[in-house]
Amino acid sequence: MAIKLYNKTRCPDKILRAIVTAAGQRIGCDTNIVVKVTQGQCLGGSGRALHGFPYLWHLTRKRQKDSARDRVVSTRGGWIELVLPGTHPAWDVLLQAEKWYELCLHEWGHVKDFQTDFMPGREWSRRGESGRRPNWEDRPEEKRACMYAARGQERARSKTADEAILALASWLEEKQKRGA
Ligand SMILES: [Zn+2]
After folding, report:
1. Phi, psi (5° rounding) for residue 37?
2. pTM assigned to the model
3. Confidence band (pLDDT; 50, 70, 90) for 67?
4. In terms of pLDDT, which residue wins out, 62 or 76?
5. What CATH number should be reported for the domain whose range is 4-118+133-178?
6. CA quadruple 72, 69, 64, 131: dihedral, nearest 10
7. Pairing mode, if any, of strands 4-7 and 34-39?
8. What's the CA-to-centroid distance between 68 and ligand 1, angstroms?
9. Arithmetic mean of pLDDT, 57-66
10. How far is the CA of 38 from the centre of ligand 1 (A)?
11. If DSSP codes are grouped into helix, strand and coil, which group holds residue 157?
């Protein structure tokens, strides 16, 4: 099943879909999830993976609000929000595109967690007595996402993924030239 892409950027759907899907497949996820992509201004872009509503993340259907209409979108294991990097004359577009693919791998790492049936003993960060969550690097779910991403990186990348990363780099380059 394909990702359900909500593309809020000017980057063609085809490029985003190819990169995000290739990353999801590398991690071994069911790619039938909602992915929203917006345009950012930073060098690296960013992302987060959500499991929808607490206690409901294991359900296969969730309600996706899209403009005025309420649509029910069937997903498996939450959704991902990604932010595309911005452009600047000094930034290396190929490196930016590579890093964005790595970011996708990481977010899919979280989805892998959500899609794996709940196992007793699987640790999640909680708010401590102070009411604050532990630092990013101490959260068990982040450690797992990083581990999945690292494993995904180790495996040889598909030609489709390579081409899509290059296509993103070219798109960023064009944008950079236009000074956008
Ligand atoms: Zn993370």
Report:
1. -120, 130
2. 0.82
3. very low
4. 76
5. 3.40.390
6. -140
7. parallel
8. 31
9. 43
10. 18
11. coil
Non-local CB neighbours of 110 within 8 Å, separated by 6+ positions: 49, 78, 80, 141, 145
| 3-class DSSP assignment, residue 87 | coil
Alpha-carbon torsion angle 148, 33, 163, 149, nearest 10: -10
The stretches of 44-139 forming alpha helices (DSSP H) are 93-115
Residue 47: what residue type? G
What is the length of the chain? 180
Expressed in angstroms and rounded, the spacing between residue 50 Cα and the centre of ligand 1 is 10
Per domain, the residue ranges of the chain are 4-118+133-178
- From the CB of residue 36, how many other CB atoms can be counted at a distance below 10 Å? 18
CA of 66 to the centre of ligand 1 (A): 25
CA 69 – ligand 1 centroid, Å: 30
Give residue 57's pLDDT.
37
CA of 48 to the centre of ligand 1 (A): 6
